[in-house]
Amino acid sequence: MVDMILYCFPQSTCSQKVRLALWEKNIPFEERHVDHKNREQLSEWYLKLNPNGVVPTLIDGDDVIIDSSVILEYLEEVYPDHPMSPNNPVDRAHMRKWLRYLEEVPTPAIRIPSFNKHLSKRYEDMDDTSYHAMADKHPVRKHFYKRMNKTGFGTKETEEALDRLDGAAQRVADTMDGHGKDWIIGDMHSVVDAAYMPTVDRMIDLGLGDMIKRRPSLKSWYDRYSARDSFLKTFYQGTRLTEIFGKDIA
Ligand SMILES: N[C@@H](CCC(=O)N[C@@H](CS)C(=O)NCC(=O)O)C(=O)O
Q1: Exposure class string for 116-141: b at 16+ Cβ within 10 A, else e
Q2: Nearest CA residue ID for atom 5, ligand 1
């Protein structure tokens, strides 16, 4: 019997962040899949747990914790074994600075090519009225879905997103080149690595792997991380969009 339940989608990058940390920290948990295809994240029962209508949601005994980076920090505080955050306040401030940067730049950016290439297919059979009703009901993504308008984002927004992904890859590579250590904040494999990895893995799955490959320190970071047990357990069969939607869908 486990006390910890993670409501998630197998392919969601925000869910993958948390799965990486749970496996890394060796915390037993039950993974429960919210049915994205049928928009279960907007159902009444789920909105009671997570009023933002997004995954992941962590249930720890009687407590409900939402927002992937908040969950990462919560796990660090409550389950300090197998630490993924530094001890001293200055290093912790640097760690948080990275978490905020990742949330501000690459995390929203990766949604654009993901929806353009694959995830918009989930909406193509919906009539316009139902689609707009879904968007209107979405607590945090109403305007995102309205801009996407079932088929994908426009050229300008797509180019901006790719530029942000490239800029973030450069920032991480510069940082790693600068300190010459194995992980983003230095010697310690931390929540920052777990927070960025799913975006990088998604970039590769979307055919944007060149942004990683042409930066040797980033490429060796990916290779190092993807050999870890936590990575192999997080990215099980069916967690990549190409496995669900096929490689050739443009
Ligand atoms: N800030 C939230 C964002 C979570 C988020 O955007 N989740 C996406 C999957 S990665 C989602 O559930 N989307 C549902 C939807 O678009 O309806 C977090 O980090 O947990």
Answers
A1: bbbbbbbbeeeeeeebbebbeebeeb
A2: 54
Question: What is the pLDDT at residue 3?
Answer: 87
**Ligand 1 centroid to 109 CA: how many Å?**
13
Q: Which residue ranges form the domains of the chain, and what is each CATH number?
A: 4-78 (3.40.30.10), 89-232 (1.20.1050.10)
| Measured CA angle at 27 (ends 182, 15), to 5 deg | 70
Expressed in angstroms and rounded, the spacing between residue 88 Cα and the centre of ligand 1 is 31
Q: Convert the pLDDT of each residue in 107-155 to its tens digit.
A: 999 999 999 999 999 998 999 999 999 999 999 999 999 999 899 999 9
| For residues 207-226, average pLDDT | 98
Helix/strand/coil for 58: strand
Q: How far is the CA of 189 from the centre of ligand 1 (A)?
A: 24
* DSSP reduced 3-state for 221: helix
Of residues 226, 248, 250, the one with CA closest to residue 239: 226
- What pLDDT score does 250 carry? 39
Would you tell me how many other CB atoms lie within 10 Å of the CB of residue 25? Answer: 18
The residue whose CA has the least distance to atom 20 of ligand 1 is: 67
Please write the tens of the pLDDT for every residue from 31-75. 999 999 899 999 999 999 999 999 999 999 999 999 999 999 999
Q: From the CA of 42, give the closest atom in ligand 1.
A: 17
Token output for 40: 């279960």
- Give the residue whose CA is nearest to atom 15 of ligand 1: 54
What is the layout of strands, in order, in the sheet containing 4-8? 30-33, 4-8, 57-60, 63-66
Tell me how far the alpha carbon of residue 56 lies from the centroid of ligand 1, in angstroms: 7
Residue nearest to atom 17 of ligand 1 (CA): 54
